[in-house]
Design brief:
Layout lengths: L1 H31 L2 H16 L8 H28 L4 H9 L1 H19 L2 H12 L4 H8 L3 H27 L1
Helix pairs in contact: 1-2, 1-3, 2-3, 5-8, 6-8, 7-8
Amino acid sequence: MVNNMAQCDEHILTRVFTRLRTRLLGVAQGVVGNDDDAADVLQDAFVRLWLHRDELTDDNQAARMTMTAVRNASIDRVRRRQAKHLVPMDDQQVGNITDEPDDLRQHVYDEVNDIVQNELTSTQRAIIEMRELQGMDYDEIAHHLGMRPTAVRVQLSRARKRVRDTYRTNHNRHET
């Protein structure tokens, strides 16, 4: 009986995703602007949700989570595409990056680590470490820090924004 219940719950996501596919595709197309990227977004969102399928309790919750996941995956896709276009490169810079990718990667890591250590609150640093380095989920972090999962998400979002804005400010200062 329990096995059938678990099996049924695992299929909530598939059932809802299939039912809403046309609508989800429309949302993704509206954000990313083309059919191929929209199809990729749906796959990415489904994979993300599949990892949390055991948390789904009913169709309404699954529908809300699915819509949110597709919208967020669409926004992520657009941001990645924009980030690629924002990096000005001449031939010399391209050569340096391909010749020394580990050095560049280490330099960026060091810069971001400095920002995390110097610009974030101790709570934000702890959340970043637990989420990004230790791979803990929001509930685990919340339990560990005595916070609500929504507060963890808010603090993580603020921390990431602070790191991103500080990193961009530092690089804009160096370019001028």
